[in-house]
Amino acid sequence: MDTPRIFRTPGDVVWGRGSLSYLENTRGKRALIVTDKSMSGLGVVDRARRYLEKAGLEIRVFDEVEPEPSSNTVKKIVKAYSDFSPDVIVGLGGGSAIDASKGFRVFYEHPQLDFEAAISPGASPLSFQGFKKTIHICISSTSGTGSDASRVCVITHSELGVKVPIFHQDCIPDIAICDPDISDSMPDKVLLDSGLDILTHALESYINDNTNDFSKGLSLQSFSLAMQFFPQASLQRDPAAMEHMHYAATLAGMGFSNSSNGIAHT
Known about the structure:
Elements: E1 12-15, E2 30-34, H1 37-41, H2 44-54, E3 58-62, H3 71-81, E4 88-93, H4 95-109, H5 115-118, E5 135-140, E6 152-156, E7 163-167, E8 175-178, H6 180-183, H7 188-207, H8 213-236, H9 239-257
Parallel strand pairs: 1-8, 2-3, 2-4, 4-5, 5-8
Antiparallel strand pairs: 6-7
């Protein structure tokens, strides 16, 4: 008998222009927004804060996530905000901000884990039993990483300067909000790079040895959307095309989280 496999995605995927407003429905007492300076500068953090405040939550914001978040940054967030005791974590931004929010959640909820061992190259997969204190909401500002729907958290070792992935099915966020109004602000180069990221994720997850009937549908639809809408999105910044690309990124993230990536991502 084959070993049973589990297909996992975010509990809810909230999509559509203006869907950031779904934060008004958040249940909790205290929310930590993990983000970066660009999201603060564009006013997206303030909008998210207002929606969460309408839901009655007390808010804290950490907006110092750098590109390719470092282990020192994750440790800084854990040290600064563990006493705040958030029961809602919002990862807002590109893959870096979302990965930093995932890292915070892991080590905030499971302080018994050896941080240095976990982020060492070649470390064994983390073993922990899910999350009980928090819900995790991820809102992507780019259309490529799929981190808003994936089981992967990538942290850069501060001393060694190498990326270390943390894989765990429970790292898949509880809620993914796909609001193209936010991703419309991507610079041209990020828009182009993100589109290539979608194609890579979708293709790798479709053809690798771990692919399956469930993941293939997501990967194929993501690839199909990207092939259809990438030219208009990247060359003309067509709003409808950019919207489809944004959804394609999340579909690809769900696909490779239930399959795998290829050697290009090792």
